[in-house]
């Protein structure tokens, strides 16, 4: 399936206390505004979080918005779009529905106190969750969907708030007990909730595809505010994936690159979603800075995604001109860039094992108390210019030269043998902290087990890493504090220590402490900090500390440089290198059908100017960027696109070097 690249998600959650809903809607103004902004697809509302319908329902007339001034609002919106060649998938809320919550309290998910999940009775919001395993609710949803197909053309269905949340409802508890699961165990709770949500999605998708009006190009998407490895178990339910990720709306700027890299491993097209809002959803009259909008959508293109921008339609039904001026600014640029993005695939030489595949919590809501490993490793490698995928253990490793196993990824015996074979054949593995341990934590799996032996959690926190000469590039020959507790290991025969760990005089406690924070080093070396061992034709490097989680929490430059120097030992000639600052993002893609590669350069710097979230106000220019792209034998042309300006280059065998004179924001370099 080929996605449209310029989509709008038009929220229309409209209170029943507002009159004149849709009264100012004009089909021509509506359609012309979208077309003028370059929109080629738009999600339109059938049913909102308030629970109201925006079409002339015969099956559920009681649910039609009580003040809907234009009874056929949704069909008229669709017609206006179709007249201009714009797709119009239909939005249907699932777990949040104020009308249904009030009418059917028995259809709600139940928390551990025996109450419906969500907010208190005197708090504003429609955030109580409905149970998608309740037969009554499922029956209603199917009849609702059936009616949509009967009353209007359906380009696609966009189901919102389809998130695995455990319910302490008696039906759930009995079902778990029958399966021998413990309803008190959080891991069993989440596993069962995921099975419930998967069953709902698969069943609903089968129902839709069985309707006589369904067509093969009808898209189906179930939104959970995140895309990650757990979606693999229900991939048949989806035609594609959409990564909802509003940086200013609670997701932050690290969520999208993590989720997008996860999503593109699922084997279906992926679309990124941001919002026009300065803040988050429902920010009717707040507008994102132009530079922020550019960065967010151009990053989607760089990471192989199409683009969607969220908006909220005013209750009276007229689009906001300022919003569509902002959207048009980036959509017209995307339209020109699309030929170099369609069918593009990432070119990578490094694989990173995805920590989320082994986490109990959902990707967006993982515990950040001590930093997130996935955010840390993606941030660090992006800053280093590394071309990498975020994978799970099922992935074929033969296309990679290095596999990074960050901080907390367990390795079972089967995957350990896969990694060992990869290393023996000449590949490299960099593992850190508890990664590489067997699932029961008793010891390491191969190939890490051939290099080091687990002793247990280190006695001291913090401690101090003292790098040897092999890891000193860009560092002074001193010791560096490591704030998070290491895993103490012993080296196996043939394993080299690249950095030792020194202990403090003592751990800080009420009985004994020194100065304001931690006790300094005693200069006594106590266990290995970084080790390396050659196995067959490859190497294994192990870091005792959770370096990636630590980098997400505090971003110590010495940690990044230690990892960089370790990577250079096993990957001295990466596929892409540049001499720009760490704020430069570089992504190399290929378009097999066109026989070319496209290098994306992005330079925008998020700043915490207000207390609530990061913003981007300016695109800071860079000048004289030197780039090296390997694997470039036979290259005859290097040019900026879509403009077509040629760039001079040198080609030495397969190594291509060239200089970009000036970068402002985003550039694409065609290599053919």
Automatic annotation (TrEMBL):
It comes from the Bacteria. InterPro entries: Beta_galactosidase_Trimer, Class_I_gatase-like, GH, GHL6. One of its GO terms (biological process) is carbohydrate metabolic process. GO terms for molecular function: beta-galactosidase activity. CDD domains: A4_beta-galactosidase_middle_domain. Residues 381-437 form the Beta-galactosidase trimerisation domain. This is Beta-galactosidase trimerisation domain-containing protein. The lineage of its organism: Bacteria, Pseudomonadati, Planctomycetota, Phycisphaerae, Phycisphaerales.
């Amino acid at each position: 399936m080929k996605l449209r690249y310029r989509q709008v998600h038009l929220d229309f959650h409209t209170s029943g206390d507002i009159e004149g809903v849709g009264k100012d809607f004009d089909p021509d103004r509506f359609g012309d505004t979208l077309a003028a902004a370059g929109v080629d697809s738009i999600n339109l509302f059938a049913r909102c979080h308030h629970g109201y319908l925006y079409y002339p329902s015969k099956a559920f007339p009681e649910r039609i918005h009580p003040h809907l001034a234009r009874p056929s609002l949704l069909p008229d919106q669709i017609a206006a779009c179709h007249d201009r060649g714009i797709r119009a998938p239909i939005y249907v809320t699932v777990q949040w529905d104020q009308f249904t919550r009030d009418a059917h309290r028995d259809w709600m998910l139940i928390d551990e106190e025996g109450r419906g999940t969500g907010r208190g009775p005197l708090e504003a919001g429609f955030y109580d969750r409905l149970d998608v395993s309740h037969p009554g609710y499922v029956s209603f949803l199917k009849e609702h969907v059936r009616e949509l197909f009967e009353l209007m053309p359906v380009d696609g269905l966009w189901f919102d708030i389809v998130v695995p949340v455990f319910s302490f409802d008696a039906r759930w508890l009995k079902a778990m007990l029958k399966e021998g699961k413990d309803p008190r165990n959080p891991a069993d709770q989440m596993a069962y909730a995921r099975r419930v949500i998967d069953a709902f999605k698969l069943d609903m998708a089968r129902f839709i595809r069985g309707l006589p009006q369904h067509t093969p190009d009808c898209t189906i998407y179930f939104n959970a505010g995140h895309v990650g490895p757990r979606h693999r178990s229900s991939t048949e339910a989806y035609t594609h994936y959409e990564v909802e990720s509003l940086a200013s709306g609670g997701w932050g700027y690290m969520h999208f690159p993590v989720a997008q890299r996860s999503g593109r491993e699922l084997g279906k097209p992926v679309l990124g979603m941001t919002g026009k809002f300065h803040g988050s959803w429902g920010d009717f009259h707040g507008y994102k800075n132009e530079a922020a909008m550019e960065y967010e959508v151009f990053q989607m293109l760089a990471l192989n995604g199409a683009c969607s921008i969220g908006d909220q339609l005013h209750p009276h039904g007229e689009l906001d001109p300022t919003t569509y001026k902002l959207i048009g600014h980036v959509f017209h640029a995307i339209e020109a860039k699309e030929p170099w993005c369609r069918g593009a695939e990432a070119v990578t030489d490094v694989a990173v094992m995805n920590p989320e595949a082994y986490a109990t919590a959902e990707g967006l809501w993982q515990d950040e108390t001590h930093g997130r490993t996935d955010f840390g490793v993606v941030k660090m490698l992006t800053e280093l210019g590394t071309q990498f995928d975020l994978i799970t253990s099922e992935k074929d490793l033969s296309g990679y030269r290095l596999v990074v196993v960050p901080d907390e990824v367990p390795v079972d015996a089967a995957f350990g043998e896969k990694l060992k074979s990869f290393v023996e054949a000449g590949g490299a593995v960099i593992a850190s902290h508890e990664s590489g341990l067997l699932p029961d934590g008793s010891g390491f799996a191969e190939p890490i087990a051939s290099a080091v032996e687990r002793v247990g959690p280190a006695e001291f926190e913090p401690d101090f890493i003292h790098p040897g000469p092999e890891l000193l590039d860009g560092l002074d020959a001193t010791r560096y504090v490591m704030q998070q507790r290491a895993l103490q290991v012993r080296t196996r025969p043939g394993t080299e220590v690249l950095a030792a760990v020194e202990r403090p005089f003592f751990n800080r406690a009420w009985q004994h402490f020194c100065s304001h924070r931690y006790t300094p080093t005693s200069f006594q070396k106590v266990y290995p900090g970084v080790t390396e061992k050659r196995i067959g034709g490859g190497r294994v490097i192990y870091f005792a500390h959770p370096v990636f989680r630590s980098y997400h929490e505090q971003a110590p430059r010495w940690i990044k440089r230690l990892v960089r120097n370790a990577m250079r030992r096993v990957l001295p000639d990466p596929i892409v290198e540049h001499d720009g600052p760490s704020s430069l993002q570089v992504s190399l893609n290929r378009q097999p059908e066109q026989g070319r590669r496209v290098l994306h350069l992005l330079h925008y710097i998020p700043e915490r100017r207000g207390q609530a979230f990061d913003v981007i106000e300016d695109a800071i220019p860079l000048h004289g960027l030197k780039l090296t792209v390997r694997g470039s034998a036979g290259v005859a042309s290097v040019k900026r696109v879509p403009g077509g300006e040629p760039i001079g280059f040198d080609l030495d065998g397969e190594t291509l070097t060239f200089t970009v004179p000036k970068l402002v924001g985003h550039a694409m370099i065609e290599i053919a």
